[in-house]
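Self-study notes.
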Amino acid sequence: PMMLGFECHRLLLAARGRYDYYGFVEDDVVLTDPLFFRKRKLFDQRFGPEALLQPNRYEVSPTGPVHKLYVDYRLNPRVTVRYQDITDVPHLDMPFMESAVSFERTTYPSAGCFFLSAAQLDRWVESPNFLDGDTSYLSALDSAVTLSVMKTFRVYKPVLRDAWFLEVLHASPRWIGSVTRVATLADLVDER
């Protein structure tokens, strides 16, 4: 059962060549944005199959003190440094609706899901990371949903000030309830 995520990789391989996008989604992740795949397509067309845009995963609470929390954006760099080089093309910008959205390589590329374009699926399947069974990243589940794509692509997320651009809801909130203080907006915004 702990290797079930890797079996999902085999299902993606079996479907190769039949779809525009291929997804791996944990059972508690919800896509709420009707423009999710259009935004991904804009990013993919602009930056190519080497760059993978991951959504920001968030939790909500109607009772507060925090009502919305992005739960996996920063992680101690030591955890992922052996799998990715976030200094390789660390920042991207893309025009969007009379403005610009910024993306950055993050130390925590996890999102409880990933979606690959057809070109990205080909790139992933042909890489040595595909079906390598490596479970060295946090846990077997975390490895299945993050590790081999982290080793194959330059993974980006929208910077926190643009976090809304691509996000998914974590429907099993476990972190938002542990927030003990409300940060000010200045604490949360990284101007990079």
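Second protein, same conventions, sequence then structure:
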Amino acid sequence: MSSDDEQRTEFGGKRLRDTVIFDFGGVITSSPFEAFARMERERGLPENLIRRINATDPDTNAWARFERAEIDAAGFDAAFAEEARVLGHELRGEDVLALLAGDIRPRMVHALDWLKQNGYYVGCITNNVPAGEGAGMSRTAEKAALVAQVLERFDHVIESSKVGLRKPDPKIYRMMLDMAGKAPEQCIYLDDLGINCKPAAALGMTAIKVAGEGQALDDLARALGVMPGSF
């Protein structure tokens, strides 16, 4: 039996998993956590300080409000700095924003192209902020243009800062399902944060936590029932 045959189900003779939904930062691009760690080392700040600040009051802190576009960049700069001061450290929100735009991972882009060429539906759900240029929050027009070229490959892109919802709120995943006209069981979801994978899995999607580019693509190939190295 071929891999395509193995994926055929009651969905009208079509593949069971015919939809792949990606996070953007940390999946399609390198993780901003790498840049966070580098800055913390350079400034002599505690390891994982930025992640600790962002994990405190995760639904109402400066980061969460900025991802829902409830505050602007100046408001985030001040609010984040105050949250850092409460923990005994000096760190501006603006300094963190400068680290958000990761580098595009070529193998991920190749995978997107392979999926499109083979008839899969591809979507993107990204938590981002209204800062920088475009959905990738780029700091230069050149990088913004590269990100835009990648985003054009998706059938639908949902940005938290545009819809006022952010992962892990289940509503943003349902929004993608509604846009795509898909059942959760048809979808594979990739994210570098486990907390964002859990709602997708709870809805019935196949969730893949991304720890690295090679691991993610190998796991995706297995979930699709295609040969590793197909993309």
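Instructor comment on the second fold: The radius of gyration is 18 Å.
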